[in-house]
Amino acid sequence: MEVRLTPDQEAFIRQAIQTGRIERAEDAVTEALLLWVVREVLRSEFLASLDDAKASIARGEGIPITQASMRALADDVKRRGRERQVFTAGELPEDMIDAIRRAEMDPRHQHLDELIKDWSPRGCQSPSPAS
After folding, report:
1. Are the C-beta atoms of residues 75 and 82 closer than 8 Å to each other?
2. Are 29 and 3 in contact (CB under 8 A)?
3. SS3 state at 117
């Protein structure tokens, strides 16, 4: 398959190669496709939840919209937004830390394993060597 890029896209990829972000133009395509896959998974999950919501309404399980229900919804959205915000050092939940440690590194970046093996989100410093 042959893909034609715009001059701006080609310049962007050349810059990424020159700065060491990627090694080859094919790497840019690979990353773009991975992002597309993630987006499609999220889209699919959203559509499934939309179908669930429509089915719930059809079963009469909808919530009447009132001032109070809108206030409660706004509070819930704010709470979920705060939970999803970027964490600072020492704020990552343990399950998130465990997931990061279990994640498989892209083979091209495994050399970073040595750099992060002692990484600690608690204070962002490696633990002191044991005496």
Report:
1. no
2. yes
3. coil
Highest mean pLDDT among 12-26, 58-72, 110-124: 12-26
Q: What pLDDT, on a 0 to 100 scale, did the predictor assign at position 24?
A: 93
Structure tokens belonging to residue 86: 């970027």
3-state helix, strand, coil in the chain (%, to 5): 65, 0, 35
What's the pTM?
0.45
Provide mean pLDDT across the span 28-53.
Answer: 91
Q: Is 123 left (phi over 0), alpha (psi -120 to 50) or beta?
A: left
Tokens 């179908």 belong to which residue? 51
Q: What is the pLDDT of residue 118?
A: 61
Longest dimension (CA), the chain: 66
Contact between 24 and 36 under an 8 Å Cβ cutoff? The reply is no
> Helices (H) and strands (E) in the chain — how many of each?
5, 0
C-alpha to C-alpha distance for 121 and 86, rounded to whole angstroms: 13
